[in-house]
Design brief:
- The chain is α+β, with helices and mostly antiparallel strands.
- It is built from 3 helices and 9 strands.
- The strands form 3 sheets. A 5-stranded antiparallel sheet has the order 5-2-7-8-9. A two-stranded antiparallel sheet has the order 1-6. A two-stranded antiparallel sheet has the order 3-4.
- The longest helix has 13 residues.
- The mean pLDDT is about 80.
């Protein structure tokens, strides 16, 4: 699950750097395809077919926090959470880089980061195990 306190802590930590950042959080919820077919009659069923994902973006996630009584968004097995952070102002390093590379026509980089997490197992909305890709 995603807690409102954790989300607010992330925003505060990013803001504490003194730079301005755009923070985007996306949640891809897995919605199992109801037209899946069972591949065997055994106890462990093998399902054939594709799952469908629907996305929730930062503003929708913030709305969900406001609507929930406990400030939590529950996630299920197969859901993805992706966080993108990108600076929107020019840092001192970028200003120096601009003055040096501006003459030569070089490109100036931006500060950004992305983190994606796959929920591989959950019980009653509590994470047991997650698979991270940075």
């Amino acid at each position: 699950m995603i807690k409102r306190e954790s989300y607010d802590a992330l925003i505060e930590e990013v803001d504490a750097t003194g730079n301005y950042y755009e923070v985007n959080v996306n949640v891809q919820h897995m919605d199992e395809n109801p037209s899946k077919k069972t591949g065997s009659d055994m106890v462990d069923e093998i399902k054939i077919g594709e799952n469908i994902y629907y996305l929730e973006y930062t503003t929708q996630i913030e709305d969900k926090f406001a609507e929930s009584e406990d400030g939590r968004i529950k996630l299920r097995e197969g859901d993805y959470v992706q966080i993108d952070v990108k600076n929107t102002n020019q840092t001192m390093h970028q200003m120096i880089q601009s003055s040096l590379y501006g003459i030569s026509g070089g490109k100036i980089g931006t500060i950004s980061g992305q983190h994606t997490v796959l929920i591989v197992e959950s019980t009653d909305g509590k994470f047991l195990r997650i698979l991270e890709d940075t």
